[in-house]
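Let us practice reading a record.
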Amino acid sequence: MGSAKSASAAAKRPTSSPKDGAERIARALESIAAQLSAGSPAPDALDSFATADAFVWHPNGRLAPVPRVSRVDLGLLKGIDRMRDILMENTERFANGLPANNALLWGARGMGKSSLVKAAHASINVGRKPADRLKLIEIHREDIETLPALMDLLRSSEFYFIVFCDDLSFDGNDASYKSLKAVLEGGIEGRPENVILYATSNRRHLLARDMIENERSTAINPGDAVEEKVSLSDRFGLWLGFHRCSQDEYLAMVKGYCGHYGIKVSEGELEREALEWSTTRGSRSGRVAWQFTQELAGRLGVRLKA
């Protein structure tokens, strides 16, 4: 009786046809194709590079174009002539398809490290055809772990890119610096030939001293642990040091800004007020010079137009 019911149920069960099998295979292939498409750069993302010269990278894989970059003219950067010339030469070689180094701009705050990167990018693009223009992409410090994904996207483009990270440093147990190390030198794919990395930092080795000391005290082999941390900055071919400016350099910065923006003040009064301003701030730097210029222009009713 039981065997009869089983035979009856089997007879009622629908049998799969060759057409059903073909449909299942087609759906599976469509699913695989969709997954592969999602993992590759979207055509519109690659095409968008022609719409602007500067972008901001977001960790969700989106590049936001920047129509107008906040920058100062290269000629207004005073007291950093040697670093300016080295970075400009390196950037120009790279833009022309020649070998160039990643660069770490480190040192005193407010001395024009990030301003130099943005000004060099603008200066290199003067007179270049749209297809030959160098692109600047800013990646935020907290998004460094997504750097490999950005490299994959840029590798497929015909443009050349400066990937720029401002105020780069690592603290505590932050291990995201390993992503940066792999991109700079250590990965199998390596850095794409059309990408160069520029970073600014107040620290020469990018890592806090207590971070290095903690590694030294807890590691089985302290020397190896410290070497592994410090080797990050070694992967930048260019180290450009920025140091505190002298009084004469500070005054030259102020006068350069005032001359550029047409701020009319007697030289004696300008020097006296500029020095008084730096004394109240407790430092002399390009940033302090610019802040004084904004104060003076506002007081005199002068608009600071680019």
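A brief commentary: Confidence is low (pLDDT under 50) at residues 34-43.
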